[in-house]
Design brief:
The protein has about 500 residues and is an alpha+beta fold. The chain folds into 3 domains: about 270 residues, DD-peptidase/beta-lactamase superfamily (Beta-lactamase); about 110 residues, 3-Layer(bba) Sandwich (D-tyrosyl-trna(Tyr) Deacylase, Chain: A); about 100 residues, no CATH class. The protein has 11 helices and 22 strands. It has a 5-stranded antiparallel β-sheet, with helices on both faces. Helix 4 packs across helix 5 and helix 7 packs across helix 8. The longest helix is centred in the first third of the chain and has 20 residues.
Length: about 500
Amino acid sequence: MSPSLRMRRTLAWQVVLALALVTPAGALGRQSPQRAALVSRIEAALADPEIKGGIQGIVVMSLATGEVWFERNADTLLIPASNQKLLTSATALHFLGPTHRFITTVIAKADSLRRGVVAGDLALRGDGDPFLDDAALTTMARSLRARGIREVAGGVVGDPGAFGPQGYGDGWAWDDMPYYYSVPVSGLNLNSNVRRISVIPGRRVGERVKVSVWPTGLYGTVVVKAYTGAKGVTPRVDVERRLGTDIVTVSGYVPLDRRADALKPIPVAVENPALYAATRFTQILRSVGVAVRKPARVGSLGAQSVKVLASYASPPLSNLVARLNKPSDNLAAECMLRAIGRTKRTPGDVPSGRSRALQWFSDIGMDTRGVIIADGSGLSRQNYVTARNVLTLLRHMTMHPAGEAFRNSLPVAGVDGTLRNRMKGSPAEGNCRAKTGYVSRVSSLSGYVASASGEPLVFSMLMNGHPCRNAGATAVQDRIVKELASYRE
């Protein structure tokens, strides 16, 4: 997109914000011949046999006038899949604010530090940061070493107490739990709560493959059942984790002539994120010259007086919501829902986050009888919402002080995130900003697009129960958005 076009669109959206403040939402108005033709084209797209038998909740509105251009089943409760992240990220921006940062700390008992030695345990206390990584731990470890700490007589205690008991969302599928998109949620997370498994062929056909795990040297077992196949065969590698354990099995085959750098590492969920983080921090401390005498464990230092020895602040929430919405990061959404519900007296959990969200939804005009929240990410099939409620939220966020951060967090058609390969070469490319969503037999797309006449539009499309593969449903969604982007009054 050229800088001049980007500037014109930015100015157009600024006008939208001003109009939205004074323009009430309206019902379907009198249609011009052009508008009637647009409605006919949308209905033709929805008649696609690929989605026959399913149900579609759709509503399209002009942000400039508040007029509804099209609706179908707009008040029907449907599973949103990752459109749930729109609810979560908007609520997080509202309650936490775009400048909010998650602060991870390293603490010890106030009287335990003597002459460079921590005479007891060192705690790594999580604040719910979903993006804490090795670089952050290394920064804190070097800070400890720089202040003269050379030994921890005890061990590193992973403290996940910022949130309630770690675990999974209500209704998550048990057979998804070993995989990177369904990791357990904790107040102390690290490296997206995954380990990465790399596989390369052996020296000859029939030999077991060679497997490496990153980070190395941590707890857990890898059982290798994969073999080296003949040259030219298509590789097939399955990595599974036994539920409730960190026992990982690698099966399948890799061709003899497969280059080591041609196979991407496979992320596998860890069973206990807080223990994973504490164990990894122990490794990093030792690597920078801080001796740690005992193994890592999960717990806390209790209520006694403690001293903060090092800390790490995440980027601001305005940055993190883009890292949530553009790639559709489930762990980030779950952490934010829990953070919304956290208070000074209680840890964050889903019920408290849900309660605050529903109250705010009611305040902004959503019909909360049409919102059922089971989790923050949309993995659960127990989430339900109406397309009209999603649209009401999207419309409200154009007036919200954090509205720019919210809108900028959404994938851009043909450009980035989960829309990077969709609607390329169409008027929607670089124009439509929307959140995707997918679980089996569910596909959704909701967001913003400007018509060819420059009219800013907001839309929500929730599709459930279609018999086709997801590509069939997304093709219908893309066709509708292209029609909206091409429309000229």
